[in-house]
Amino acid sequence: MHIHAYEKLWLAASILLILLLIGSVTYGAVGPGVAMVADSEQPVDAQALDEDERFSEPRVEQVGENEYAAYIVAYQFGFEPSPIVVPENSTVTFYVTSRDVIHGFEVVGTNANTMVVPGEVSDLTVEVEEPQEYGLICNEYCGAGHHVMEGKVHVVSQAEFEERNGGGDGA
């Protein structure tokens, strides 16, 4: 049986394209910097967040010099606390969970973007510079009111942060 040279060429090109597709999918699944919801945080009971010390009172608290932890609860159709207030020139780690359905957590204008799954704690770290206001949106469809699920992240001066939080020891 004779196979024409052009058929051999197209067959080789097709096999090469299939291998490239498999390689790119594999790289996308395990490549550097690609991760889904991290499992480094202890899971939570989404129905009993008021009993979890991290999420019973959503807040921003200082955990080190110029380092802050923000404990955020997403729900249909908002974020708590609202607004999220953090001091300028600091590093903020957001710990976000959901009490009801899957949500998104995106700080508009930054690369802070994660999926928020009930029972899981998503964490992401952001460095903030000067006083500014950022939008906060849910970018995962979460129900009929999804389009109104938004919030704000206010980056304020250290003095204003301490004033709002009663001396800077938590919100």
What does this protein structure show overall?
The protein has 171 residues and is an alpha+beta fold. It has a domain of 119 residues: Sandwich (Immunoglobulin-like). The chain has 2 helices and 10 strands. The chain is elongated and about 85 Å long. The N and C termini lie far apart (79 Å). 24% of the residues are buried.
Layout: helices, strands, pairs:
Blueprint: H1 5-30, E1 59-64, E2 67-75, E3 78-80, E4 84-87, E5 90-98, E6 103-107, E7 113-116, E8 122-128, E9 132-137, E10 150-156, H2 158-164
Parallel strand pairs: 2-5, 4-10
Antiparallel strand pairs: 1-2, 2-3, 5-8, 6-7, 6-9, 9-10
Specify the CATH architecture of the domain at 46-164: Sandwich
Helix content: 10-25%
At CATH level 3, the topology of the domain at 46-164 is: Immunoglobulin-like
What is the first-to-last residue Cα distance? 79 Å
* Rg, Å, rounded: 22 Å
| Count of individual helical segments | 2
In terms of per-residue confidence, which ranges show pLDDT below 50 for 5 or more consecutive residues? none
Name the overall outline: elongated
Major β-sheet profile: 5 strands, mixed
Order of helices and strands: HEEEEEEEEEEH
Query: Which structural class is indicated by helix and strand composition?
Result: alpha+beta
Give the averaged pLDDT, no decimals: 88
Q: How much of the sequence is in beta strands?
A: 35-45%
Under the CATH scheme, which class of the domain at 46-164?
Mainly Beta
CATH homologous superfamily assignment of the domain at 46-164: Cupredoxins -  blue copper proteins
Total count of strands: 10
